[in-house]
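Bumping my old thread because nobody answered last time. Still need a sequence for this structure:
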């Protein structure tokens, strides 16, 4: 699993039949402190993530192990929306901040 930030969307009106119903997002990998590190990757969204959210995603054959992507021709899938990240006991990301 990798941590990434959703930085965009991909719209495709014509696609292979097994991709019907899938929503695609552009993700960039982030480091433990939340800074963008990697290049972009297009991932099928299995959890309803939105632009700007931190997510957990898998690539390669692991991307086809969710109920949503089983036996579909995908190489990356978003499988969780991150609420909080802590590194060495310090929170480096919190989705919801109490006021």
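Sorry it took so long. Here it is:
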């Amino acid at each position: 699993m990798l941590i990434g930030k959703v930085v965009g969307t991909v719209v495709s009106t014509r696609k292979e039949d097994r991709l019907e119903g899938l929503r695609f997002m552009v993700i960039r990998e982030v480091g433990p402190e939340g800074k963008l590190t990697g290049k972009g990757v297009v991932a099928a969204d299995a959890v309803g993530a939105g632009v700007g959210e931190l997510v957990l995603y898998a690539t390669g054959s692991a991307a086809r192990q969710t109920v949503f992507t089983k036996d579909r021709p995908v190489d990356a899938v978003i499988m969780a929306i991150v609420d909080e990240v802590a590194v060495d006991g310090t929170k480096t990301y919190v989705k919801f901040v109490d006021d």
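The chain has one domain: 2-94. Let me know if any region looks off to you.
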